[in-house]
Amino acid sequence: MSVAEKRPLAEASHVMAALQRIWQGARLNWATTTGAVIVLVAIGAAIFAPLIAPYDPIEIAIENKLLPPSAEFWLGTDHGGRDILSRVIWGARASLTVSLLAVVIGVTGGVLIGLFAAYHSGSWVEQIVMRAIDAIASIPLLIWAIAIIGIVGVDSVDIGPFTFTNVHKLLILIGLLYMPTLARITHAVAQVEMTSDYVKARRVQGAGNLAIMFGDVLPNCLSPLIVQATLLVAIGIVVEASVSFVGLGVQPPTPSWGSMLADARNYVFSGEWWLPVFPGAAISLTVIGFNLLGDGLRDVLDPRRSTGRLLT
Amino acid sequence: MLRMLLNRLAFSILALLFVGLLLFVLTRGVPGSPARVALGLEATDTQIAQFEKDHGLDRPVVEQYIRWLGQLVLHGDFGRSFVTGRSMNALLTETLPITLELVLFAFAFAVAVALPIGVLSAVYEGTWIDHAARIFAVIGVSVPGFWLGLMLIRFPAVEFGWFPPGGFVPLSDGLVAHLQSIALPAFALGVYYIAILSRMTRSGLVETLGSEYVRTARALGLPRGRVLWYALKNALVPVVSVGAMSFGYMFGWALIVEYLFNIPGMSNALLTAVGQRDYFTMQAVVYVFTIIFIVSNLAADLLNRQLNPKLASAQP
């Protein structure tokens, strides 16, 4: 990773300072604000889908089949007569469930691994952990997601008292594949923090290892992690849509943007333009939102990292 | 330098071995014998046992893996699918060139468009050209390529008839038809990388153009174009390494684009294998994708160190 990442944050001024900087930055920058508004709208749609969707997103009403946008159906209807607007709103739920929870899993695992490696800084434990992380990072995400879902199948799996639907499998998988990136960031920042004077001071005060790692070092890793997590949400949305598009993600009849596009593909010759346009626009807008927000947060929280590192 | 090279190479090989084992364990760990898939539901247990014995499936996973790896390394042989009986090498020679061509086209297109956009954006920093380029970049990284592709099929192809709406025309059927069939997929695949690479070019060049030595060169009266050329050479260092890495990632997205456009490349092989529960083919295809990915990451890393001596000396 780049040299810039190993830079310690200026001071041990923690979460509040970070939030304050986000707030100030957001007020200054219209792009970040736009991103935040889009993100809030998408999350709102996902949470309140049952309240705001005008129609049932699943129930077939064949008499309304393939109607163009109108006053009654704002975004038209699909081959089952289902309202596209309602399906797009419900689709936010599938999309954000996968992308947000995958990031939660990725951050949790990545932080634990990164802190663990940093704690063992200089020893062979660190070497082994970080080389294993490098090896997992050499797994191309999308292909493996498709292949593993292909191997385990799209049906629900019961493990003990838990039922894992395909959505669960997908989000766990994406989360696991996110871990290397987040572990590397945590490790890089934590390693520098470990050698800082304040950590030594805390040791002298008699603080335990866990208290130091989670109470002092971790808060200093938060800024780059928040930025990266936001950008990974954007990637997760596209990955979920892509996997659902090839039929291995969210399973019908649950509405998801990717599977709506898969349906739309069947009508590409017959002129129902509203079928592909709206779900795709929903994906694009939401991803733009998370990207703008992530970029804006980076400018505020982590200004020295170069822009343009938006790789999957 | 040589030591570093060997180090990186050794690590890449270890990573490949590890990832290969992971893949092997995953494909072998699924409940249900491949023999069941190959022989059908009516096969008797004796037939299944016989099949497993014949194909070495009754051996421990690690032993199977070493055997498979031995064939691959010593003979370059990916083996045969238990389900379809097809030789993997034949499958790969058929599909890999198509995917490779698509990715190369998309990559060349992305680089050819991204560099001028990035340079213009940096030279005219803060003007409408720059703003337009940056807005394009945000949209470019956010719009999924497969949706863009779907819209391209819907409008330029179906509505206006400028391009075929899908399918792949081999080069032997005429150059124009071949290029036409690959143009939209390459475009859909390339746009994301235009956005990434133009942004990197812009930010690199803006930084270099603001540096002391560029100011000095300008003050000494060097022509603008020449200064820009020098600055660009330095600004492109990170772009080259991100470009090389992007090349590996493009194969992943090519999967979806190929599926959308019905192009008979590697993704078709993979998704057909998924449909048939043909783990052997899945494993071979995924492994090839992973090899490509690791090799392009290695290339990116080496290029980066080559072009960026500071980094090379900092991390032996």
Verbal overview:
The complex is a heterodimer of chains A (312) and B (316). With 312 residues, chain A is mostly helical. Chain A has one domain: MetI-like fold, CATH 1.10.3720. In chain A, 67% of the residues lie in helices and 2% in strands. Chain A is built from eleven helices and two strands. Chain A has helices spanning 15-28, 30-47, 49-52, 84-119, 124-137, 141-152, 166-194, 197-205, 209-245, 257-265, 274-301, and strands at 157-159, 162-164. A two-stranded antiparallel sheet of chain A has the order 1-2. Chain B starts with a helix and ends with a helix. With 316 residues, chain B is mostly helical. Helix content of chain B is 80%, strand content 0%. In chain B, helix 5 (88-123) packs antiparallel against helix 10 (224-261) and helix 11 (266-276) runs antiparallel to helix 12. Chain B has 13 helices and no strands. The longest helix of chain B has 38 residues, at 224-261. Chains A and B meet through helix 5, helix 6, helix 9, helix 10 and helix 11 of A and helix 1, helix 6, helix 7, helix 8 and helix 10 of B.
Short description:
The complex is a heterodimer of chains A (312) and B (316). With 312 residues, chain A is mainly alpha-helical.
Rg of chain B, Å, rounded = 24 Å
User: What is the average of the pLDDT values of chain A?
Assistant: 85
Topology, number of strands of chain A:
2
Helix fraction of chain A by DSSP (H/I, runs of at least 4): 55-70%
> What integer value in Å does the Rg of chain A equal?
22 Å
Please name the CATH architecture of chain A: Orthogonal Bundle
CATH class wording of chain A: Mainly Alpha
Q: What is the string of helix and strand elements of chain B?
A: HHHHHHHHHHHHH
